[in-house]
Amino acid sequence: MPTVVLPRLPLYTPHLEKDLPLKWQMANSVYQINKGINKPVEFKGLKAQYIWYLGGGLVALLILFAILYITGVNIFFCLAIIFSAGGALFMQVYKLSHRYGQYGLMKKMAGKAVPKVIKSYSIVKLKSQILK
Predict the structure, then answer these.
(1) In angstroms, rounded to a whole number, what is the distance separating the alpha carbons of residues 58 and 41?
(2) How far apart are the first and last CA of the chain?
(3) Which residue of 1, 57, 108, 127 shows the fewest CB atoms closer than 10 Å?
(4) For the stretch 47-60, what's the b/e string if a residue is b when 16 or more beta carbons lie within 10 angstroms of its beta carbon?
(5) What is the domain partition of the chain in residue ranges?
(6) pLDDT in tens, the chain (132 residues)
């Protein structure tokens, strides 16, 4: 069998790199690859807007606790109300998250804004609205 002899590669000399044309110069940049790009934000199984719903509900429960405590309601009664409402809030938000997914709840709310019937008493106006 014949042996193949490969030519020797030239040694890398950085001081000669500046004399090379731009297309031949070595790029010394290091780029980070973000593996989570284009994925929805997720925290403990909650995706996208459900994190905001849970955070808003918890802030509302904190304000409710402050109002109940300031008005003089028994502390144990306040805690019972807040913990039961908090548990219901967590269960409801997780249920919505698993049922509708990342964009499903927004699509459902947008579907309610679509009119069921378009009434027009003029065929010309109807055609112009449809063609827009």
Answers:
(1) 19
(2) 75
(3) 1
(4) bbbbbebbeebeee
(5) 48-102
(6) 567 676 666 665 555 555 555 555 455 666 666 676 777 777 787 877 888 889 999 999 999 999 999 999 999 999 999 999 999 999 999 988 888 877 777 787 887 888 787 776 777 777 777 776
